[in-house]
UniProtKB/TrEMBL annotation:
It holds the Pfam family TsaD. Keywords: Transferase. Residues 207-220 have a biased composition (Basic and acidic residues). This is tRNA (Adenosine(37)-N6)-threonylcarbamoyltransferase complex dimerization subunit type 1 TsaB. InterPro entries: ATPase_NBD, Gcp-like_dom, T6A_TsaB. Residues 207-230 are annotated as: Disordered. GO terms for biological process: tRNA threonylcarbamoyladenosine modification. It comes from the Bacteria. PANTHER family: TRNA N6-ADENOSINE THREONYLCARBAMOYLTRANSFERASE, TRNA THREONYLCARBAMOYLADENOSINE BIOSYNTHESIS PROTEIN TSAB.
Length: 230
């Protein structure tokens, strides 16, 4: 199975391709607020270098959030466009799931934490290999009470709020501040495709523009996901 993984949930643009579980290539570039300008060009160049046609893809995995609103929309538009053109199944991947996944077999408790801006954080608690909480939009103070001793913490939220790092917790070195596209590929391989028409960003809060201008139209995805403990 040939899978393309796409992550545009943050200031990085990340792609990966795997074939039958083996990573063929991975690419990441810092493109603050420029995803729409460079994304398709970079991907087309990489596919050409690898002599891979879009039509040969068996599946696309794409990050759906939570994360940067504009980046998520651009990434989903790319995935939908390729999928529509070549009838390729698409698997949505939550960014918190993607951050946590590489560590679930190594630590009993894993808590990915990402900066949601305006004094808030995105987070989720994973216990014994599965998600054991809702996807959370929480203050740093509120999150502190959810962090047990021995938990692995990761994500860019720790850079913004270093006070979350208390005695007894574990921080990976280096601390991954955004999901890896190769993990998006893996989760797409084991996940379930959805109808392209239902593929939407996963938002836990309004965008800054909607907060600053509440009289405008509101566009949001589902608020809080169900628990998924295995």
């Amino acid at each position: 199975m040939l899978i393309l993984g796409v992550d545009t949930s943050n200031i990085f643009l990340s792609f990966a391709i795997e074939r039958d579980g083996a990573l063929i290539f991975t690419y990441s570039e810092k493109v603050p607020m420029r995803h729409s300008e460079v994304m398709f060009l970079r991907l087309r160049e990489l596919m050409h270098q690898l002599d891979i046609e879009f039509s040969s893809l068996d599946r696309i995995g794409v990050s759906i959030g939570p994360g940067m609103f504009t980046g998520l929309r651009v990434g989903l538009a790319l995935a939908k466009g390729i999928a529509y053109s070549h009838s390729i199944p698409v698997v949505p991947v939550n960014t918190l799931d993607a951050l946590a996944h590489p560590y679930l077999s190594l630590y009993r408790t894993v808590i990915p934490i990402t900066d949601a801006r305006r004094g808030l954080l995105y987070a989720a608690v994973y216990q014994d290999g599965g998600r054991d909480s809702d996807y959370l939009l929480v203050t740093p103070e509120g999150l502190k009470d959810l962090i047990p001793e021995g938990a692995l913490l990761l994500g860019d939220g720790l850079i913004r709020y270093p006070e979350l790092v208390k005695e007894g917790v574990v921080i990976p070195d280096p601390n991954p501040i955004h999901p890896e596209a190769k993990t998006i590929c893996h989760l797409a391989r084991i996940g379930e495709p959805v109808s392209i028409d239902t593929l939407e960003p996963f938002y836990l809060k309004k965008s800054d523009a909607e907060i600053d201008h509440p009289e405008g139209d509101e566009t949001r995805g589902p608020g809080t996901g169900p628990r998924d403990r295995k």
